[in-house]
Amino acid sequence: MAYWLMKSEPDETSFDDVLAAPGRTVSWFGVRNYQARNFMRDAMSVGDGVLFYHSSCAVPGVAGIAEVASGPYPDATQFDPSSPYHDPKATSAHPRWISVDVRAVEGGRYLTLAEMRSVPALGDMVLLQKGSRLSVSPVTAGQWNAIVALLREGQR
DNA sequence: GCCAACGTTGGC
DNA sequence: GCCAACGTTGGC
């Protein structure tokens, strides 16, 4: 079992939006970076743990725990000329970008990026490296356990 | 809104 | 295949 951190802009899709979605599941579309795509296509498995991260917002941080709920399939928005994620070089015969389904598992308190930076056990996280801007990044088991413990602090 | 860092594009 | 120019990301 592997662990991942996936970034979403909460104005577009927040963790609460996923909790409210049918089956608590959404399609993760719009990834347009090859490294992030390759993680999703080649390394993710159904059941992998996902830290749901809110980016490009007033207070970035981890909003909850989710899981990978499907294998990879073509991202429909790449074929849609009216979508901001449209890719004119992608065809249905040769799709370039993929999606996976993500299911919300558990909320928690909001763990801010600033707090994550203060936790020594998280110092090696890909997310926290200088210049890192991958929208999908791997998380080690140790990092995962530390973050899950922090998310559960003060929760009933 | 700024800007550092990174990724992509395209001329050569 | 190099690399300058440009575009994007994302925290602050």
Keyphrases for this structure?
THYN1-like_EVE; EVE domain-containing protein; PUA-like_sf; 8 strands; 8-stranded mixed β-sheet; DNA-binding; ph1033 like fold; 156 residues; alpha+beta
**What is the CA-atom radius of gyration, in angstroms?**
15 Å
The CATH superfamily is: ph1033 like domains
Proportion of residues in β-strands: 25-35%
SS elements, strand count: 8
The name of the CATH topology is ph1033 like fold
Total domain units: 1
Total DSSP helices: 4
Structural class call reads alpha+beta
Pfam families: EVE (PF01878)
Protein name: EVE domain-containing protein
InterPro entries: 5hmC_binding, EVE_domain, PUA-like_sf, THYN1-like_EVE
Per-chain topology:
Elements lengths: L2 E6 L6 H6 L4 E4 L5 H10 L5 E6 L6 E8 L4 E2 L23 E9 L4 E2 H6 L17 E4 L1 H12 L4
Parallel strand pairs: 1-3
Antiparallel strand pairs: 1-8, 2-6, 3-4, 4-6, 4-7, 5-6
The chain binds a DNA duplex (12 and 12 nucleotides) through loops.
Protein name: EVE domain-containing protein
Organism: Massilia hydrophila
